[in-house]
Amino acid sequence: MSDESPWLVVGLGNPGKEYAGNRHNVGFMVADLLASRVGAKFGRAKRVQGEVAEGRLVSSGQHSGGPKLVLLKPLTYMNLSGAPVVSLSQFFKVPVSNVIAVHDELDVPFGQIRAKRGGGEGGHNGLRSMSKSLADKEYARVRFGIGRPPGRQDPADYVLSDFAGAERKELDFLVDRAADVVEAIVLEGVEWAQNKYHGG
């Protein structure tokens, strides 16, 4: 993996104000925070259906010259997220090993953030579209735990509902932690991020 290769961080979500606070949109929330950390602003991209921000990630002890981050919020709706991902990865010559998807995860309890590379999609339409379009599953994932729906609520309805009041009190902290995990993957690798952040 070349140090020169940029990283493509894909925040998965649905466009539109009505979806902004949904559990399904935590990827957008994390992408927004990462953009502010690298001093970048999202703008509509001409070449893809999405909003894109670019900046450099500076690690502690450095002042400049860190890895280049390309941040993407697809505007295609979740089940078509793969097309803009492929377009941008080709344009910026990003290898699949340098692609990170940030997404909500039903199979991880709320309050936990998990990093992994490759694997299945767990029924997540955004991941499914990315894997199909990239023809490769070996990209990294930052899995933002939202837990399973209570009672008999349909998971499809649950992910498209807003966080509960008690959850919202922790949300900013968890979005911040998920952004930390993304940065750790870029700077140190998935295994390092797992060792540091999987304690809780």
UniProtKB/TrEMBL annotation:
Keyword RNA-binding: yes
EC number of the protein: 3.1.1.29
Catalyzed reactions: an N-acyl-L-alpha-aminoacyl-tRNA + H2O = an N-acyl-L-amino acid + a tRNA + H(+)
Highest rank taxon of the organism: Bacteria
Site feature: Stabilizes the basic form of H active site to accept a proton: 104
Active site, per annotation: 24 (proton acceptor)
Classification via Pfam families: Pept_tRNA_hydro
Site description Discriminates between blocked and unblocked aminoacyl-tRNA, residues in chain: 14
Job description of the protein: Hydrolyzes ribosome-free peptidyl-tRNAs (with 1 or more amino acids incorporated), which drop off the ribosome during protein synthesis, or as a result of ribosome stalling. Catalyzes the release of premature peptidyl moieties from peptidyl-tRNA molecules trapped in stalled 50S ribosomal subunits, and thus maintains levels of free tRNAs and 50S ribosomes.
HAMAP family according to UniProt: Pept_tRNA_hydro_bact
Assembly information from the UniProt record: Monomer.
The name this protein goes by in its record: Peptidyl-tRNA hydrolase
Origin species: Paractinoplanes aksuensis
